[in-house]
Amino acid sequence: MNTELLLQNLRNVPDFPKVGIQFKDVSTLFKNPECIAEMRKELRRLYEDKGITKVVGIESRGFVMGSILASDLGAGFVMARKPGKLPAQTRKATYMKEYGPDTIEIHDDAIAPDDVVLIHDDLLATGGSMQAVCELCKSFNPKKIYANFLLELKIEGLDGRSVLNEFDVTSLLTIK
Does 6 score more than 80 pLDDT? Predict the structure, then answer.
């Protein structure tokens, strides 16, 4: 994987959403077709032999590469969304983010017990949203759950991977 290409195209936004935070903006990766191709190739390589049947994308940046990956793997795509955004019956989980509580939902009929699930999001910081979605997916009793991120932050005070220790977790990039 061309890590240098991806790191060179990752935007850092100082003091967003509050003073002291160095926000890592992956939207700059999405606007560059070379970066999309590189991420797509690496994600496919990581998961092409895992038997994935459903890819769950976490709102909203997880939808971008998650749907591309689902198509590449011949899997279905499931949206994990904020409350009130899904039209049918849902399951929900509330969790703590760095900036306060949040809730995430998945349709009640999204995952079956014979599914192998890959949950995808853009960024791993505290792991709160991914942990909530993992627990939601686990409630469907699928065969296996994987978790993937484009970017993992391993900086002081952030150890999101530790709350996901029962799941197989990968990240394309790590920032220390």
Answer: yes
